[in-house]
Amino acid sequence: MTVPTEITHHTAVLNGINQHWVSAGQGPPVYLLHGFPETWYGWRKQIPALAEKYTVIAPDLRGYGDTEKPASGYDKRTMAQDTLALMDHLGHERIALIGHDRGARVGTRFAKDHRGRIDRFVAMDNIPTRVIADTYDVAMARQGYWFFTFLQVPDLPEALIAGNEEVWLTHFYRSWSYNPDMLTAEEIDVYVRAYRQPGAVRGSCMDYRAAPQDVAQDREDEDQLIDCPVLTMWGEDFSAVGKAYDVLDVWKGLARDVRGVAIPRCGHLCQEERPEIVNAEVLAFLDGWNG
């Protein structure tokens, strides 16, 4: 899919790392945080629709895409501070935040740590880190979470994946989608090129290796519910989320005001596989957001 020409690319050193983000549109700010194994490019089907009414900011997270890939700082509190630094750089006092997968983990920590800076939050196809830690067992590993453990092994994943990035990534894109051929070869190649960059595989591994820190942070304030309205969306057909958990019930344990949408005939990459549903639900949820 062709990326719209109105998208512009930016970089700046923020929170101690060189961050890359794209922007489009004008209006109240809406931030899009991608997950694994993606980059900002995972939002290419949302950006044009959102940019008609909003200023859309889609960064590459720490360790991903064209953002710097340091050896540390992958706990979600630090990654949320990356987002905060970007907001301050752009002069955005308050935002609507949409996060998918890992981006939803960053968004969850942001919503708890920076309550005055977020107006509403969309958590897409995500079970929070603490909940996974509390329910993880061999059966859950077999259901789809095996790579959580694999990526936490020091050094080995980098050695095995190097030179095999296309095989590694394509496994997830195909097995995590209701339609295995959802992504074209051209679209997959965009991601493969991103993950072949020096440090990119290590960056995604470090994201998962931060799990003990993330769980500790989540336990510190697990009794403090998210204040802003939350929309949680998930693919009904993804084995590790929609088929493994009562997603709406999980999120009711994290936030005061939660609405849930299950997306039929959809896997993990909701915004790519069913963009018409995602865009409609997100735009409805954003209605009234005026900055």
Key terms:
17% strand; 13 helices; 291 residues; eight-stranded mixed beta sheet; globular; AB_hydrolase_fold; alpha/beta
Give the uncertain stretches in residue-range form. Answer: none
Derived structural class: alpha/beta
Major sheet summary line = 8 strands, mixed
Strand content: 15-25%
What overall geometry do the principal axes of the alpha carbons give? globular
Number of helices: 13
**Structural Rg:** 17 Å
The percent range for helix content is 40-55%
How many beta-strand segments? 8
Listing every helix as H and every strand as E from the N terminus to the C terminus, the arrangement reads: EEEHEHEHEHHHHHHHEHEHH
What's the overall average pLDDT, rounded?
A: 96
Question: Major sheet: order of its strands?
Answer: 1-2-4-3-5-6-7-8
Distance between the termini: 30 Å
Keywords: Hydrolase
Organism: Streptomyces ziwulingensis
InterPro entries: AB_hydrolase_1, AB_hydrolase_fold, Epox_hydrolase-like
Domain AB hydrolase-1: 28-275
Describe the structure.
- Helix 3 (102-113) links the parallel strand 5 and strand 6.
- An 8-stranded mixed sheet has the order 1-2-4-3-5-6-7-8, sandwiched between helices.
- It has helices at 47-51, 76-90, 102-113, 129-135, 138-150, 156-161, 165-175, 185-195, 200-209, 211-220, 247-252, 270-273, 275-286; strands at residues 8-14, 17-24, 29-33, 55-59, 95-100, 118-124, 230-235, 258-263.
- 46% of the residues are buried.
- Helix 2 (76-90) packs across helix 3 (102-113) and helix 7 (165-175) crosses helix 8.
- The protein has 291 residues and is an alpha/beta fold.
